Amino acid sequence: MPAIAPAYKRILLKLSGESLTGEKKFGIEASVLNRFAAEVQKAHVLGVQIGVVIGGGNIFRGLSEKAKEMDRVQADYMGMLATIINSLALQDALEKKNMQTRVMTAIEMHEVAEPFIRRRAIRHLEKGRVVIFAGGTGNPYFTTDTAAVLRAVEIEADVIVKGTRVDGVYDNDPEKVKNAFKFDEISYMEVVSRGLKIMDTTAITLSMDNRLPIIVFNFNKKDNLKRLVMGESVGTKVQE
Question: What pLDDT, on a 0 to 100 scale, did the predictor assign at position 133?
Fold first, then answer.
């Protein structure tokens, strides 16, 4: 019998910068990077084209307590630079597992990354390279969630998958509320009306306008990304 094909040909994986800290309060934990790279590899060998957007909150966040007395634009640019540091770290971890990668950044720095050019990004994906999109949108006042959805739309991804430390979308914080209810599926509008903080409103609206489904899942659970791309019911699906 022929092997079962993946359910998705091209995905955009969104990760938070904080997810890289492991047991630390800030910075990058090498063991976490290696584990993430191993999970990406399992999906990559199936032939899935993978783009990645990773935040910078483990290093600096424009809206953080540390930045409250700073000019917002200046602080946001610092946050964008933090995403580039994380992207280079992830690139190193992926390439140590023999995956070809490219880092493409919205803020030009030719010595370390390519500038983001949509057609070139799609070509990299078609050649089987993992493309890491860094530097957010290149503009202040936009989160990396919005940047992830924007890049997903631009590369014509089938789905955006948001890796978290919980196994989907709940009506309350499952780490604080024992009987929180998990949704298997939920609409964009219900996410907004309930004020569920899976992504900011701009990102959710952009996904809705472009009919781009979002799957929120536990990236810390082994093989979850592989199971997801193969079409298994993993996490919570946000769609119309």
Answer: 98
For residue range 39-92, list pLDDT tens digits in order: 999 999 999 999 999 999 898 876 666 667 889 899 999 999 999 999 999 999
Region of residue 98 (left: phi > 0; alpha: psi -120 to 50; beta: else) = left
Sheet of 185-187: strand order equals: 114-115, 101-105, 130-134, 49-54, 10-15, 159-164, 214-218, 236-239, 185-187
pLDDT at 1 over 80: no
What gap in Å lies between CA 157 and CA 13, rounded to an integer?
10
What would the DSSP string read from start to end of 175-186?
A: TT-TTPPEESEE
Residue reference for tokens 């493309």: 131
Please, what sign has the CA dihedral across residues 24, 13, 173, 234?
negative
- Is residue 2 over pLDDT 60? no
Going along the chain from its start, the domains and CATH numbers come out as: 10-239 (3.40.1160.10)
Judged by DSSP in three states, 12 sits in strand
If you search the block for the tokens 């536990």, which residue do you land on?
218
Angle at 157 between CA 155 and CA 158, to 5 degrees: 160
Helix axes 144-154, 118-126, angle to 10 degrees: 70
Top mean pLDDT of 1-5, 72-76, 125-129 is at: 125-129
